[in-house]
Request: fold
Amino acid sequence: MTAKPRVFSGIKPSGDPHLGNYLGAIRNWVNDQDRYDNFFCVVDQHAITVAYDPVNLRANLRQLAALLVACGIDPDRSCLFVQSHVAEHTELAWLLTCTTPMGWLERMTQFKDKSVGGQRERVSAGLFTYPTLMAADILLYDTLVVPVGEDQKQHVELARDLAARFNHLYGDVFTVPEPVIREVGARVMGLDDPTKKMSKSDEGANRTIGLLDTPKAIQKKFARAVTDSEGHIVFDDNRPGVTNLLTIHQTLSGLTKAELEARFAGRGYGDLKKELGELVAEALTPIQQRYIELTEDPRTLDQILADGAARAQAVAAQTMSRVRQAMGLR
Ligand code: AQP
Reply:
C-alpha cells in the first residue's frame, strides 16, 4: 500500500473565522481528510506579525481550534496542532531566512499591500519575513500538497522556490510542495465591498459572515450586501457583488452556474439574498452546535492539541536533524 500524500495547511487566529475561511479552506480540508495524511496548524506566530492583544490572541486561538474540530477536522484522521507548541517552526524559519534572497520577499504582494506609503516605517520586520515562516511550516512536514485560497498561492510558490533553492545549495533535504486551489469558492469577497476579500482582521461594517453568527445576523448581513442596479442575476466579472453571492450559493448548493442563473431568472436580489441566508445558516448551525459542546468540555480540546503537537513534533524533529546536518550546524 502506498502512503497517502501529506497535506499541510494553516490558519491564523487573528479574529473571528468567517465564511471565506470555511469555503476557501476548512471545508476542503474536512472533505479531503481520507485522501491525505493531514497536518493542520493554528498558526499563532503568524498572527503576531501585526499589532495584537495577547489576551485576544489566546481566546482566538482556542476559538479557532474548537471551530476546526466543530467543522469536522477529526483528530483521529488529522494531526491538529498549534504552531508555537512545536519550536522547530521558528528554528527552521531562521535558517530559511538566511537562504532567502531579499528580492523574493519584496515581491510578495501581501507585504506590498500592507506596507504602502508611510506604513513601511512602522510595520514589523516579521511581516516582511513571514513568508519564510510559512515556508518552514510547510517544509517541516515533507508536505506534498498545500490546499489554500487563491490569495495564498504566491506564498506557497515561495515555499516551493525555497525548497528547490535549499536542495540545490545544501543537498536533497526538502520535499517540493504544490499549491492546490479550488476554482469554485476560491475567493469569497466582502459583503459590504465585493472588491475586497472577506477577511478576519478587516472590520468593515457588514464585511464578513462569522462562523458563529446567528441565523438572524446572517440573514441581515446578506440583506444588506452590496450588489448593483442592474437587477438580473447572472455571473459577470464586471458585477462583483452579485457574482460573489452566486459563488457562495454555488459552493454550498453544488448547482452549476447555468442551473443557478436559470433558478434566479426573472427574480430579484431579495430572493437570492434570502435563499443564501437560509443556505448559509443551515450549513453553519450544526457546526455551531458542536462548537458549543466543545467549549463546555475544554479538557477535550486541550488533549487534542497536546496529542497533535506531540505527533507534529516527532516529524519536525526528524526534518530539523536533516537540515542542521546539511547546513553544517551539527
Ligand atoms: N475571503 C477568502 N476566501 C477564500 N479563502 C480565504 N481564506 C482566507 N480568506 C479567504 C483562506 O483561509 C485560509 C486561512 O487563512 P489565514 O487565516 O491563514 O489568513 P488569511 O488568508 O490572511 O485570512 P484572513 O481571514 O483574511 O485573515 P487576516 O484578516 O488576519 O489576514 C487560507 O487558506 C486562506 O487562503
Remarks:
- The chain has two domains: 6-186+298-327, 215-292.
- The chain has a mean pLDDT of 93.
- The pocket of adenosine-5'-tetraphosphate is lined by residues 10-12, 14-15, 20-21, 24-25, 148-149, 151-152, 187-188, 197-202 (CB under 6 Å).
- The radius of gyration is 21 Å.
